[in-house]
Amino acid sequence: MNKKIVVLGGGESGVGAAILAKDKGMDVFLSDYGKIAPHYKQQLIDEGIAWEEGGHDESRILAADEVIKSPGIAPTAPIMVKIAERGIPVISEIEFAGRYTDAKMVCITGSNGKTTTTLLTYHILKNAGINVGLAGNVGSSLALQVAREHHDVYVIELSSFQLENMYEFKANIAVMLNITPDHLDRYDYKMQNYVNAKFRIIRNLTPEDAFIFWQDDPVIQAQLRQVTTEARMYPFSEHLEKDVDAYIDADDELVLNTSHTSLKMPRNHLALHGLHNLYNSMAAGLSACLLDIRKEDIRRALEDFEGVEHRLEYVATVNGVRYINDSKATNVNSCWYALESMPKGVVLILGGKDKGNDYTEIESLVKEKVKAIVCMGKDNAKLLDFFTGKVDAIYDTHSLQDAVDTCAAIAASGDTVLLSPCCASFDLFSSYEDRGRQFKDAVKRLK
């Protein structure tokens, strides 16, 4: 009898998983409690896969042999509780896809910098002529690529949500950029639960595999004292420390050292600027070295990478004021990195759906660099309470257009208007991409 697979969630990962399950001869049903986007519906129709939207057929779902859950569905959702009560195994799309490929896996996680590092690693490998796929939070569904394409290597961005339901899946190179508080509403407001989810990336690593991580992250260091891995360790740091494999030397050159490849290049040749991007470049460079990419290919790709939309993205200069779109900064630590790379004279736009944020992390940088804060959200009370009196001026706005108009009115030539919200976008926008695009449109209207 065919294995009964139920896929929950009709987005990129869910539809990809359903197609792979169909191709493997399984009995597949996809269910989405909300609406499925028209292009995903069409894919399901074209593939002849049974689906539903706007609710769950519980009897059909609870008859599954295995459930593939989209990462955005919380384990506390009513249908998930019923699935757990029945003892039905629940896995992620990444876990499912990993069963059907022997490609090498470069898996990247961290609270901040994941997307940049993933795209940079992919850029290096693709430009070096590797048959490489891009998956996870960026690119196409891993399951769909495994079903319909063939790649020798996959570069995969993994969120804590995706890692939650991974068990047998194995990375060949696991990258941990940093861990700072994020998504605590998903983890019972317990930081350790979030850390445990992140560290699932090192599950199943063997002595032939590699673990690349930021040496100076206190949360990573504390967890490494509690867990063990057989993988070879490749820590990176800003400066040379004991045992680090990537650092900046006394001549301001980036040094990458692995058992496979060693290379040096001037730091000022890196395409990406700022301390956080230095770490992203180190992690991507170490991954490429371990995959035996030629030194000249690594250097060239680190020099010509063009960055990520919505991450410290320059938009325009209007009346001498620079406008920067950092809409991807959906947590406080992301905003810290953005402010760290800015000159003084920042007009900072904050606000959105608060995920249990602690703003003390950016307090000293705000006092040092920010001349005004413009709050932008349905409810700005927490931001107003925290920052009033800590900056010269603070404003309460409830739409993006009002926020941008306010910034334009108070910013002087030489200032920087920085959208780096610290919060999720779902109070006023459909996604951080939607927020970023609307910001760019509003800035262009200022000209």
Automatic annotation (TrEMBL):
<feature type="binding site">
    <location>
        <begin position="110"/>
        <end position="116"/>
    </location>
    <ligand>
        <name>ATP</name>
    </ligand>
</feature>
<dbReference type="Pfam" id="PF08245">
    <property type="entry name" value="Mur_ligase_M"/>
</dbReference>
<keyword id="KW-0547">Nucleotide-binding</keyword>
<keyword id="KW-0436">Ligase</keyword>
<keyword id="KW-0961">Cell wall biogenesis/degradation</keyword>
<dbReference type="Pfam" id="PF02875">
    <property type="entry name" value="Mur_ligase_C"/>
</dbReference>
<dbReference type="GO" id="GO:0008764">
    <property type="term" value="F:UDP-N-acetylmuramoylalanine-D-glutamate ligase activity"/>
</dbReference>
<dbReference type="InterPro" id="IPR004101">
    <property type="entry name" value="Mur_ligase_C"/>
</dbReference>
<dbReference type="InterPro" id="IPR036615">
    <property type="entry name" value="Mur_ligase_C_dom_sf"/>
</dbReference>
<feature type="domain" description="Mur ligase central">
    <location>
        <begin position="108"/>
        <end position="286"/>
    </location>
</feature>
<keyword id="KW-0067">ATP-binding</keyword>
<dbReference type="GO" id="GO:0009252">
    <property type="term" value="P:peptidoglycan biosynthetic process"/>
</dbReference>
<keyword id="KW-0573">Peptidoglycan synthesis</keyword>
<keyword id="KW-0132">Cell division</keyword>
<dbReference type="InterPro" id="IPR036565">
    <property type="entry name" value="Mur-like_cat_sf"/>
</dbReference>
<comment type="pathway">
    <text>Cell wall biogenesis; peptidoglycan biosynthesis.</text>
</comment>
<dbReference type="GO" id="GO:0005737">
    <property type="term" value="C:cytoplasm"/>
</dbReference>
<dbReference type="GO" id="GO:0008360">
    <property type="term" value="P:regulation of cell shape"/>
</dbReference>
<comment type="similarity">
    <text>Belongs to the MurCDEF family.</text>
</comment>
<keyword id="KW-0131">Cell cycle</keyword>
<keyword id="KW-0963">Cytoplasm</keyword>
<comment type="function">
    <text>Cell wall formation. Catalyzes the addition of glutamate to the nucleotide precursor UDP-N-acetylmuramoyl-L-alanine (UMA).</text>
</comment>
<feature type="domain" description="Mur ligase C-terminal">
    <location>
        <begin position="310"/>
        <end position="422"/>
    </location>
</feature>
<dbReference type="GO" id="GO:0005524">
    <property type="term" value="F:ATP binding"/>
</dbReference>
<dbReference type="GO" id="GO:0071555">
    <property type="term" value="P:cell wall organization"/>
</dbReference>
<dbReference type="InterPro" id="IPR013221">
    <property type="entry name" value="Mur_ligase_cen"/>
</dbReference>
<keyword id="KW-0133">Cell shape</keyword>
<dbReference type="GO" id="GO:0051301">
    <property type="term" value="P:cell division"/>
</dbReference>
<dbReference type="InterPro" id="IPR005762">
    <property type="entry name" value="MurD"/>
</dbReference>
<dbReference type="Pfam" id="PF21799">
    <property type="entry name" value="MurD-like_N"/>
</dbReference>
<protein>
    <recommendedName>
        <fullName>UDP-N-acetylmuramoylalanine--D-glutamate ligase</fullName>
        <ecNumber>6.3.2.9</ecNumber>
    </recommendedName>
</protein>
